[in-house]
Design a protein that fits this description.
The protein is of the alpha+beta class and 212 residues long. 25% of the residues lie in helices and 35% in strands. The chain has 5 helices and 10 strands, in the order αββααβββββββααβ. The strands form 2 sheets. Strands 5-6-2-1-8 form a 5-stranded mixed sheet. The protein has a 5-stranded antiparallel sheet with strand order 4-3-7-10-9, with no helix packed on it. A hairpin with a 2-residue loop joins β3 and β4. Mean pLDDT is 84; it is low at 1-11 and 13-21.
């Protein structure tokens, strides 16, 4: 359990700030687009926008590097490698059965957007899923709640661009009690909910996809 936390800490030390004093320490605004080809869901295209302070920390390390330069590409590869080590921080289910992702993404990219950095990647499913009549849901979250990973609103969920496929994608907010919220926010920067690795899960939004 401690080893898993250390992996998470190293990952977030690499790409996220540690200057806050309560959980969560950093924030990611997410967007997602399901990828559908030939009536099958083949993957999820994610866009993660980091908060300004986190972005400033990474931008400082990159100095004046440009996106096509080796130092920038190396940073993007390091971020992607650590995301892969945690299975994209995503639990994916179809018909109630957990579905695995492929080991490597089909693409990834680190970009600047004003004072913020955006990391985008596509997680491919190990086996495509027929979407007709499927009941699909997934959650993307940090188990320790070290980082808050959220969709700002329903508009952050983009419908797949697939001809002759009608899908409805909806965002479902978690039912978080005031007691749980107080506990999470009371954790100091050097604390981890090691006895309960479901803390992040309890704050996780759920995305559901239903297709005809």
């Amino acid at each position: 359990m401690m080893m898993k936390f250390n992996i998470l800490f190293l990952f977030f030390s690499l790409i996220f700030t540690t200057k806050s004093f309560a959980h969560p320490h950093s924030f990611i605004d997410m967007q997602v687009t399901p990828e559908i080809k030939e009536h099958q869901l083949v993957g999820l295209a994610f866009t993660w926008k980091m908060d300004p302070m986190t972005s400033a920390d990474i931008a400082y390390e990159l100095k004046n590097s440009k996106e096509d330069e080796p130092k920038w590409r190396a940073q993007a590869a390091a971020i992607m490698a650590n995301i892969l080590a945690q299975n994209y921080f995503t639990d994916f289910y179809s018909q109630g059965k957990k579905i695995a992702f492929q080991t490597l993404p089909s693409d990834y990219r680190l970009q600047r957007d004003g004072l913020q950095l955006i990391f985008s990647f596509t997680a491919q499913l190990k086996h495509p899923i027929p979407v007709a009549g499927a009941n699909i849901e997934f959650m993307t979250y940090d188990p320790t709640f070290f980082v808050s990973m959220t969709y700002p609103d329903q508009k952050a969920l983009h419908s797949a661009k697939a001809p002759q496929t009608q899908c409805k994608i909806t965002l479902h907010e978690p039912d978080v009690t005031d007691e749980l919220r107080f506990y999470a926010y009371s954790l100091d920067i050097d604390q981890s909910p090691e006895e309960d690795e479901t803390l992040g899960l309890q704050f996780a939004q759920k995305v559901k996809i239903q297709c005809q």
